[in-house]
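Dear H.,

Thanks for agreeing to be a second pair of eyes. The structure we're designing against is below in token form, covering all 866 positions.
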């Protein structure tokens, strides 16, 4: 690779620093090498190998031969020391190591033989050598010596760095590296950072390592300016529903929303025009104003997924308030908690849900009856909200055990549409789906991507959203052009397309936008094989609720399949600024992981009523140079690729995403702590076979006679309360269904690391959940097939025919897979609703036989387990 050089002045400064600190030139160079390795890897300790001459013994002085030995030197970089302090540590380590320089290296290696990994050197993977005499200075009679680095074809270590003096008084160097691990450009960047940091350390030895410059000036400009957003301003002086109102004037008769309403005999199709939707929302808005709703008011929105949801949402905004999404599936305790935390003025709810809210003592306005209460009014002239006022508050899981609300303004949303418009070109001809829950911020993008541009919004019923075949049919029937999906949901849809649907050849579908969770590029291979070049564009957008839905954009193309299995998220939305920083807040170089910080007009206000939490997450921007600028600490681990794209790597904490929902395991653990039979717990996400991400709770039961927790307030119950079904029911009364673990594992004690922390890697994989009914084996060939399909989908051993699919850890996505496998294996359609209503093999067998036109088998006689 390109030679490494330090000028004569920098080399002299290093030598002077060494003399002041009682260190040799080698020790100073080793400290610099260790510092850059630390900044690249965040390792608190590095071990560097170095060759020693091996001629300290008198009897070897006159002999010809190679007596070089290899010596490992350990450098301690903990605590962000100043370079001078690191040099002192390195000096002590070198002196101690050189006392044992005559111990043959192979003896040390042989001592590790029982546990040695022969694919790598057991003591170190990097080496540093200092050639005290330059080959260029050598002179032989009638012979010219030209120093060249010869490639041997094999790297002895992952990375070897060689320094040597130069005739001009400076230092030169080169690197040998493993091509299996590094590209030449990566090593060149490393050498550039080594030169930058080493020269700065000589000038400022008392600075902490984190404050020594690493990036060159060209690199700093690249990551701060060339690869960043923030240069284009999209600040709008308009509220989001004003965009809709303008479309309602221009396209009053055009269909705005398509969906279903519950009728006496089943679902009824509903089509609302822009004009009708505007009028209905206006009438409801007038009613909400009489209830005290105005700018900055917070109004709950508790509706099923249907056209009424859009009516209620628009009404809240037109009345000047901000809506707070609530799911009808939430337990009463959750609804009461969120209503109190958000200080709701009232709750707009489906008419059928008003009595439930009244029983809880919560004020409610029925979206249907209240909207019809003022038929002569349309809300014209309401003093509604402006761009800086509240639009919505979405609650996310909280690391403190309590959910936290994220208030987002109208201006946050409007600038998102404006800043991304050049990439998509949305318009009146587009048909969108509202596929996601309004409690998930992806829905904000879906709703306004359609209604702000005069398009049509198809509200997908919950059951259809969980049945890939039905959803594929809806996409084709409604001629959907823009589809938003989490990667998990799209995998189910891909399976449907590959299984024979012409979805991927559907001419209307032009764009698929991913978000909500990491995208596995390899999972897109079946789709591309089926769709070919005629398929829709695939776009990956990384985003965060606190930064208004989306942060980055990247088009995914078939050649990405040949890349490493990573999740590229692309470039910043033009009005946002992104910084990838290490744990000390310094910019990370290209290729080096760091936390993503986000700034710009997409940032939410903070957290509802949580000033301390807001201050910890929304921090002053040290890079802008302007007072009042903020950055949001995402907690996501990313790195820049050489082409400027960001790559998502995971989390720096234990926060997880399951089916697009952001979950703090500590909130689930806090709910489990209220159980009187649980002493301690830990919740993790696992991807055991068949590979779906699912929550698993590990519990340590309270000892016999142990006092229950204060939160429980009752005597410790019978151990049967730790059965999965009982635990699931306990949590279902406190948490949304997506936060209830799929499996529960009871342990005698949680495994710990040597430092006394929970060793999450040592947590065992859950076995199939024991059935809480007596085991009943399959009695017919059909039941035997269904038992096999169930085991294939959920993993583990075969179930009994009376076992409950969901009590055994099945999720809605797993249920969708089972429905697909039944259709493939047996050629019979079983709806997802059937599986939810009758989630046992015995019931499914009766439905399958009924679907074939055969009589249902007689009821099974339950037999006790052997």
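And this is the sequence the design step returned. I haven't edited it by hand at all.
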């Amino acid at each position: 690779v390109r030679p490494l050089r330090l000028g004569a002045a920098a080399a002299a400064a290093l030598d002077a620093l060494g003399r002041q600190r009682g260190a040799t030139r080698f020790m100073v160079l080793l400290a610099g090498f260790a510092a850059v390795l630390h900044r690249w890897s965040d390792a608190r300790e590095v071990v560097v190998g170095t060759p020693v001459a091996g001629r300290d013994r008198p009897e070897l002085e006159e002999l010809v031969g190679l007596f070089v030995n290899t010596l490992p030197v350990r450098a301690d970089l903990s605590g962000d020391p100043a370079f001078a302090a690191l040099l002192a540590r390195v000096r002590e380590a070198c002196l101690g190591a050189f006392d044992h320089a005559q111990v043959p290296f192979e003896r040390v290696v042989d001592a590790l033989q029982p546990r040695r990994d022969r694919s790598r050197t057991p003591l170190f993977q990097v080496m540093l050598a200092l050639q005290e005499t330059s080959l260029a200075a050598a002179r032989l009679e009638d012979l010219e010596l030209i120093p060249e680095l010869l490639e041997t074809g094999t790297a002895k270590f992952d990375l070897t760095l060689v320094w040597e003096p130069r005739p001009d008084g400076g230092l030169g160097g080169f690197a040998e590296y493993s091509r299996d691990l590094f590209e030449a450009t990566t090593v060149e960047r490393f050498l550039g950072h080594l030169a930058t940091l080493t020269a700065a350390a000589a000038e400022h030895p008392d600075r902490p390592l984190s404050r020594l410059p690493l990036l060159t000036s060209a690199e700093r400009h690249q990551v701060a300016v060339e690869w960043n957003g923030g240069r284009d301003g999209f600040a709008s002086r308009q509220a989001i529903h004003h965009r809709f109102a303008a479309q309602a004037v221009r396209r009053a008769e055009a269909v705005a929303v398509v969906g279903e309403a519950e009728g006496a005999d089943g679902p009824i199709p509903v089509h609302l025009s822009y004009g009708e939707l505007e009028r209905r929302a206006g009438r409801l808005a007038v009613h909400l104003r009489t209830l005290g709703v105005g700018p900055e008011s917070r109004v709950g929105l508790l509706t099923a997924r249907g056209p009424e949801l859009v009516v209620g949402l628009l009404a809240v905004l037109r009345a000047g308030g901000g809506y707070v999404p609530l799911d009808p599936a939430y337990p009463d305790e959750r609804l009461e908690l969120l209503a109190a935390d958000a200080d709701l003025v009232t709750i707009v709810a489906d008419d059928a849900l008003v009595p439930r809210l009244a029983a809880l003592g919560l004020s409610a306005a029925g979206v249907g009856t209240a909207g019809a209460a003022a038929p002569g009014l349309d809300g014209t002239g309401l003093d509604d909200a402006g761009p800086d006022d509240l639009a919505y508050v979405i609650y996310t899981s909280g690391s403190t055990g309590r959910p936290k609300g994220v208030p987002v303004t109208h201006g946050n949303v409007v600038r998102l549409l404006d800043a991304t418009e050049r990439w998509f070109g949305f318009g009146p001809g587009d048909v969108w789906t509202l596929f996601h829950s309004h409690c998930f911020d992806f829905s904000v993008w879906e709703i306004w991507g359609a209604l702000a541009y005069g398009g049509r919004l198809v509200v997908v019923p919950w059951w259809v959203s969980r049945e890939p075949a039905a959803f594929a049919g809806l996409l084709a029937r409604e001629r959907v052009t823009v589809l938003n999906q989490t990667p998990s949901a799209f995998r189910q849809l891909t399976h449907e397309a590959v299984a024979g649907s012409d979805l991927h050849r559907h001419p209307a579908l032009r764009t698929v936008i991913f978000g909500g969770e990491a995208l596995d590029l390899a999972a897109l291979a079946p789709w591309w094989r089926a769709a070919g070049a005629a398929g829709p564009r695939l776009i990956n957008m990384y985003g965060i609720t606190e930064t208004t839905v989306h942060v980055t954009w990247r088009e995914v193309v078939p050649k990405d399949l040949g890349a490493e299995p990573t999740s590229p998220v692309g470039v910043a939305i033009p009005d946002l600024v992104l910084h990838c920083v290490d744990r000390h807040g310094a910019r990370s170089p290209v290729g080096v992981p760091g936390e993503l910080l986000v700034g710009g007009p997409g940032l939410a206000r903070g957290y509802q009523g949580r000033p301390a939490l807001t201050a910890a997450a929304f921090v002053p921007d040290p890079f802008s140079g302007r007072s009042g600028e903020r950055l949001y600490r995402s907690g996501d681990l990313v790195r820049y690729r050489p082409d400027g794209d960001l790559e998502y790597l995971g989390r720096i904490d234990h926060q997880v995403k399951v089916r697009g929902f952001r979950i703090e395991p500590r909130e689930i653990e806090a709910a489990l702590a209220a159980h009187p039979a649980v002493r301690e717990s830990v919740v993790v996400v696992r991807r055991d076979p068949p590979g779906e991400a699912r929550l698993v709770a590990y519990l340590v039961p309270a000892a016999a006679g142990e006092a229950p927790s204060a939160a429980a307030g009752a005597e410790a119950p019978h151990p049967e309360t730790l059965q999965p079904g009982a635990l699931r029911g306990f949590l279902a009364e406190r948490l949304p269904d997506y936060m209830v673990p799929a499996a529960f594992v009871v342990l005698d004690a949680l495994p710990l690391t040597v430092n006394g922390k929970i060793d999450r890697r040592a947590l065992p994989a859950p076995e199939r959940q024991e059935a809480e009914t007596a085991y009943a084996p399959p009695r017919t060939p059909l039941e035997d097939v269904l038992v096999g399909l169930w085991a294939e989908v959920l993993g583990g051993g075969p179930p009994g025919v009376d076992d409950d699919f969901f009590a055994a850890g099945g999720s809605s996505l797993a249920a969708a897979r089972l429905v697909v496998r039944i259709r493939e294996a047996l050629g019979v359609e079983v709806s997802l609703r059937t599986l939810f209503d009758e989630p046992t093999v015995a019931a499914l067998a009766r439905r399958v036989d009924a679907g074939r036109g055969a009589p249902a088998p007689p009821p099974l006689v339950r037999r006790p387990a052997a």
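Two observations from my side: The first helix runs from residue 8 to 21. The chain has 25 helices and 31 strands.

Warmly,
E.
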